[in-house]
Specification:
InterPro entries: IrrE_HExxH. By secondary structure, the protein is mainly α. It has two domains: 63 residues, Metalloproteases ("zincins"), catalytic domain (Zincin-like), CATH 3.30.2010; 63 residues, no CATH class. The protein has six helices and three strands. The protein has a three-stranded mixed β-sheet with strand order 1-3-2, with helices on one face. Strand 2 and strand 3 form a beta hairpin. The longest helix is centred in the middle third of the chain and has 19 residues. It is globular.
Length: 146
């Protein structure tokens, strides 16, 4: 979490803790990230990284559902890249198998970020024509591709 707090500071952002309709939010005009109080460290870390993704990617609120969904996916993928290394993912899968919640627990992130990381791995696989594997260890072969 310390490295995320440094990124907030280095980016000139303000971090506030207050309730809202979601676990977190990013206000581009105010350069502020909001985190809901009472989250676990794992959830707070993932949400903060996600909101940093919005800030870094320059996202502003969109009225178009498709654009908003795309922004959410990109912020999740940005956060997943920041918090999950290929080696850590492979090690977690070796210990926990492919169960999403187990991997999230092992990696110290939310299930949403595990899903985002898997999307990234699939795209990497597609770009280098690596055939997908099934079962435990299915992502370990992609560590070298990153």
């Amino acid at each position: 979490m310390d490295h995320l707090l440094r990124l907030v500071e280095e980016s000139g952002l303000r971090l506030v803790e207050r309730p809202g309709p979601t676990r977190g939010g990013y206000d581009h005009a105010a350069m502020t990230i909001r985190l809901a109080p009472g989250m676990s460290v794992r959830t707070a870390t993932s949400v903060l990284a996600h909101e940093l993704g919005h800030a870094t990617l320059g996202h502003t609120v969109s009225a178009h559902p498709e654009a908003r969904a795309r922004q959410e996916r990109r912020a999740d993928e940005w956060a997943a890249r920041l918090l999950i290394s290929p080696a850590a993912y492979a090690a977690a899968e070796a210990v926990r198998g492919t169960h999403r919640a187990s991997l999230a627990f092992e990696l110290g992130v939310t299930v949403e970020l595990v899903d985002a990381y898997r999307r990234l791995l699939q795209r990497i696989g597609e770009s280098v024509y690596v055939a997908p594997r099934m079962g435990s260890g299915q992502w370990a072969h992609r560590v070298a591709a990153d």
